[in-house]
Every structure is written in structure tokens, then in C-alpha cells.
């Protein structure tokens, strides 16, 4: 008898929930914003600091304000003198000049050097591989990286992949562009002419074959 009542309550609850959901008009979220990388060709690449990076800040003749700092998820760091210094999206040199400007309030002619450890970088600078890759994932960009390098990192294609119908999505001049890439020719047939340069922020979509 008790189990019968419990099941009846569950059924009624499910029906009420379905009624509520059916009566609600769910708003549609806007599409994700894809940001254009500052790297427009393979020779213009400069590493940008991102959340999760560790930055070493050396202030000449001022060891008390020097140190190693982890970039917070909000893209900022806190030093012994200044809280909430924005660092994400800057090159190490740009950050050094920013810190010099900030420290000039407290120190006379500060000279700052910034180096980076534990490279993560901004999400927008990563290369993302989705679909029928053996290990779909986001990859940190490395200078002069090519499609072949990316496919090695994701373990190649699955047996269901349609590699020659894959596309590469890239933001150029504020617009989303799509390029056809021949991954199967590259990694299965050894067609090196199918290898292409990739840039920070590229998205590679590998569809499933229809047969």
C-alpha cells in the first residue's frame, strides 16, 4: 500500500512538472561571443597572460615588492602594494610597463621585469577541437603550430570521422569565417599539402561520416 502511494505521488509530481514546463516559454540564450585573436598571422604571435598562469614580477632593487603571483580566474593579481592589478590579455612586457606605472606612485623610477610560468593563457587564445577527434579538447597554442600538430595532440580521428569534411572556424576582421580542411588526407593518406597553419582561437569541427 505504501509503495503504491509513493508511486502515485511520483506520477502526479511528474505530470505537474511536465505541465509547468509546457506552459513556460523558455527564452533563447544569445550565441557565445567569439573574440578575434590579436594574432592575425603566424609571425605576429605574442603570448598573452591568462587566468591560471603564474607570473614572476621582479622589481629592480625592491625585493620586498617582487614575487611570484597566480593569476586569478577574474584575470587579476594582488601584490604586496597593490590589489587587483588586471593582467589577463597582456603580454609580459605590457604587464611590466603597467606595473611600473602603478608602482611609480610608491617608488621612484621603478624598473620591472615579468616572466611567466605554468602557461595557460586566455581561453580565447586556445585551439578547440570538437566532434570526431579521438580526444576532443582545448589546446594551448604554440608558435608556428599546424593542423598536423593539433591532430597529434588530440590523438587523430575516430573510426566514424569524416575528416575531409571538417571545417576550421576563425574570426577575421570581426566576422566568422569557415575553411574546409582535409584532415583525412593529411593524417591517413600522408598528403602533406593538406597541412595548414592554425592560429590562436581557431575552432576545428570534425563531423561524423554518414556511411
TrEMBL record:
Under the heading Pfam families, the entry gives: Poly_export (PF02563), SLBB_2 (PF22461)
Q: Which residues form the SLBB domain?
A: 127-206
Subcellular location, record wording: Cell outer membrane
Q: How does it sit in the membrane?
A: Multi-pass membrane protein
Q: Which Gene3D superfamilies match?
A: Outer membrane lipoprotein wza domain like, wza like domain
InterPro entries cross-referenced by the UniProt entry: PEP-CTERM_polysacc_export (IPR017477), Poly_export (IPR049712), Poly_export_N (IPR003715), SLBB_dom (IPR054765)
Can you tell which superkingdom this protein's organism belongs to? Bacteria
Domain named Polysaccharide export protein N-terminal: which ranges?
Answer: 44-116
Q: Which UniProt keywords apply?
A: Cell outer membrane, Ion transport, Lipoprotein, Membrane, Palmitate, Polysaccharide transport, Porin, Signal, Sugar transport, Transmembrane, Transmembrane beta strand, Transport
> According to its UniProt record, where is this protein mainly located?
membrane
What family, per the record? Answer: Belongs to the BexD/CtrA/VexA family.
* Protein name stated in the entry: Polysaccharide export protein
Amino acid at each position: 500500500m505504501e509503495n503504491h502511494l509513493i508511486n502515485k505521488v511520483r506520477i502526479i509530481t511528474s505530470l505537474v512538472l511536465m505541465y509547468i514546463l509546457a506552459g513556460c516559454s523558455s527564452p533563447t540564450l544569445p550565441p557565445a561571443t567569439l573574440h578575434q585573436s590579436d594574432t592575425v598571422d603566424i609571425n605576429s604571435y605574442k603570448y598573452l597572460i591568462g587566468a591560471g598562469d603564474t607570473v614572476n614580477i621582479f622589481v629592480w632593487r625592491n625585493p620586498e615588492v617582487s614575487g611570484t603571483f597566480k593569476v586569478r580566474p577574474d584575470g587579476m593579481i594582488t601584490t604586496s602594494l597593490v590589489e587587483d592589478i588586471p593582467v589577463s590579455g597582456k603580454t609580459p612586457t605590457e604587464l611590466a610597463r603597467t606595473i611600473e606605472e602603478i608602482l611609480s606612485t610608491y617608488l621612484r623610477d621603478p624598473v620591472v621585469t615579468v616572466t611567466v610560468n605554468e602557461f595557460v593563457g586566455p581561453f580565447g587564445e586556445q585551439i578547440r577541437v570538437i566532434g570526431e577527434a579521438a580526444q576532443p579538447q582545448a589546446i594551448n597554442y604554440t608558435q608556428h603550430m599546424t593542423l598536423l600538430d593539433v591532430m597529434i595532440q588530440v590523438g587523430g580521428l575516430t573510426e566514424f570521422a569524416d575528416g575531409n569534411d571538417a571545417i576550421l572556424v576563425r574570426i577575421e576582421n570581426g566576422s566568422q569565417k569557415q575553411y574546409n580542411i582535409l584532415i583525412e588526407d593529411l593524417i591517413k593518406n600522408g598528403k602533406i599539402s593538406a597541412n595548414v597553419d592554425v592560429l590562436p582561437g581557431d575552432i576545428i569541427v570534425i563531423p561524423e561520416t554518414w556511411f
